[in-house]
Each structure stands twice: as C-alpha cells, then as structure tokens.
Amino acid sequence: MAAAAVAVLALTGCVAGNSDSASTVEPTPAPAQSSSVPASSPTSPAPGDGAAPSSAAFGSCDTLLPAEAVTTFGAGLVPDSSFVPELGSYAAEIVSFGGIGCSWTDTTTGDTLTLAVAQPSKDELTTAETALGGGAGTATDVFGSDIQAYTADGGGTFTGDIEVFTPVGFWISTVSPLYTSAATAQPIVSSVLQALPAG
Fold first, then answer.
1. pLDDT digit string (tens) for 81-119?
2. SS3 sequence of the chain
3. CA atoms of 74 and 85, how far apart (whole Å)
4. Pair 166, 139: CB distance under 8 Å
5. How far is Cα 194 from Cα 142, in angstroms, rounded to an integer?
6. pLDDT (average), residues 167-196
7. How far apart are CA 95 and CA 57, in angstroms?
8. In this predicted structure, what is the pLDDT of residue 135?
9. Which entry of 120, 121, 127, 178 is 20 to 30 Å from 166 by CA?
C-alpha cells in the first residue's frame, strides 16, 4: 500500500508539473499577432475608397453602354477604370445600393461621361423619385411615356445630370457636360434601357 501511495503521489506530481509548465506559456504567438492587426486594415477599405464596381448581375459598363455607343456620342471618350463617384452625388448613392459606376473621359478636351445603374429596394427608389419630383429635378418624357425621368437642376439651370427610373425598378444616372438638354442624352439612355433586363 505504501508503495502504491508513493507511486500515486509521484504521478500526481508529474501531472501538476506539466500543468504548471503549460500555464507559464500563456502569451502564445497567435493572440499576439491578431491583437496587432489594426481595426481598419487595407483589405477592408472604408466606404467610398477605391474604384466603383463595374459589373453586377444585371450587366456591366461594357454591356450596358458598348464602346460603339460611347464613341458615336463622343469620339474621344475612353473608359476610366479608376472612376470614383463624387461623395453625395446620385452616382455615389446608386453604387451604395449595390449598383455599378462607369466613366469615360476625353483626354484631349477633358469632357466626361458618367453612368451609374442599380436596382434598389422599392423604398429606396421611392425616396429618390420623390426628392427629384419634389423640386430637385424637372420631369421629362423624352425617353418614353413609361419612363420616369428628370433633369437634376442646379438652381433652375440644366446641369447635364439625367436621372431615369424604369418600370421594373432600375435607377439610371448619367451626367456629362456634352448633354445640352435631356434630348441629347437619348442615345446613351436608350442604349442602357435596351441592355437592361425587362423584368
């Protein structure tokens, strides 16, 4: 019995010794590395950082507005893949709804053409339409009687900003100094309308 007791005590001492040695290695490398990672890392850019998405389930910049349509409208316009919608613009709002943002620039004249398209929720769409219809824009039927469209005016002056809402819930925003009226934007808007899903 005495020998058994000594053996048990010896084993107990081994276990306790292992437990103590394990407890001394508390600061392991893994927790130390994870705690050093900043809250805002380069892999998680802040909203508004980086170029706007150029494709979505409903289409891409190239399919909604093919190169032929762009160059017919403005011969010197070339794609700008670094396009970031201006903060507070309709394009930025559209991109925040899961939409795409596209831009073309004439490097000789500096003229630009931007396009943003999304299919927001019904509430988001209603809010945008109500704001434009309530004084932020002027209604136009140049794109068809079934299309709700507005020129977004700046102090009552045409600014080259066209906002279009389709019957199936798409919001299209296109802006260019080359637009002298809503009618001059018709080739661009028509190309987008034809490329978007009808239902």
1. 999 999 999 999 999 999 999 999 999 999 999 999 999
2. CHHHHHHHHHHHHHHHHHHHHHHCCCCCHHHHHHHCCCCCCCCCCCCCCCCCCCEECCEEHHHHCCHHHHHHHCCCEEECCCCCCCCCCHHHHHHHCCCEEEEEEECCCCCEEEEEEECCCHHHHHHHHHHHHHHHEEEECCCCCCCEEEEECECCECCCEEEEECCCCCEEEEECCCCCCCHHHHHHHHHHHHHCCCC
3. 21
4. no
5. 15
6. 96
7. 13
8. 81
9. 178
Mean pLDDT for the chain? 80
Which two structure tokens, joined as six digits, stand for 48?
Answer: 């508004």
Q: Please determine, for residue 19, whether its predicted confidence score (pLDDT) is greater than 50.
A: no
Residue 66 to residues 14, 58, 78, 174, 179, Cα–Cα distance (Å): 76, 15, 11, 15, 18
Token pair listed for 186: 């018709």
Specify the length of the chain in residues: 199
Give me 80's structure tokens: 């700008």
Contact 61, 92 (CB under 8 A): no
| Model pLDDT for residues 126-169, shown as the tens digit of each residue | 999 999 988 888 999 999 999 999 998 766 678 899 999 999 99
52 contacts: CB under 8 Å, gap ≥ 6: 83, 84, 85, 91, 95, 100, 101, 102, 116
